[in-house]
Amino acid sequence: MQKRWKPNVTVAAVIEQDGRFLLVEEDTRDGLRLNTPAGHLDPGESPVQACSRETLEEAAYDFTPSHLVGIYLNRFAPTNATEDITYLRFTFCGELGRHYPERALDFGIARAVWMTIDEIRAAQERHRSPIVMRCIDDYLAGKRFPVDLLQVDPSIYCTPAVLA
Q1: In CATH terms, is domain 8-157 a member of 3.90.79.10?
Q2: Domain extents for the chain?
Q3: Of the given ranges (5-9, 78-82, 151-155), which has the lowest mean pLDDT?
Q4: What's the pLDDT tens digit per position in 61-91?
Q5: Which site among 12, 56, 84, 139 is 20 to 30 Å from 72 CA-CA?
Q6: CB within 8 A of 84, min separation 6: which ones?
Q7: Residue 48 phi/psi, 5° resolution?
Q8: Which of 97, 113, 116, 94 is nearest to 105 (CA)?
Q9: What element of type H or E holds 132?
Q10: Whole-number Å distance between alpha carbons of 69 and 136
């Protein structure tokens, strides 16, 4: 029997304030890379909750997603590597809240940085993936979908039964 393939589910926040976008600089095996605040969906949370959590952990800001910008599928299969990972990303925009400058950022995050769209476009070779620019472009194009498009069954919040 063939093993079932499953993509890695991630979330991301596109946050604009005063003509600048909030990005994070991440330490990766390829050096420092730029990304929107983003990360993996954890057990027991909805994509909206995950996006709020990841923004706080990576950029030290409260964030309340109000709209889904888009759902993206991309593959990470670097040359000369054993990895071949597919990501399914839910990208949100919303309301930026309080900043916690004293808060330590998540492991691997060097800093949060505000950049103009021109600065972001000029730094595309440093983007974590091509999806970074695509998500921001979709946001700028006005793509917005209600967050209740994503239905979360209450079973997500239950502790899973231990299998014997």
Answers
A1: yes
A2: 8-157
A3: 78-82
A4: 999 999 999 999 998 766 565 678 899 999 9
A5: 56
A6: 75, 76, 77
A7: -65, -45
A8: 113
A9: helix 131-140
A10: 9
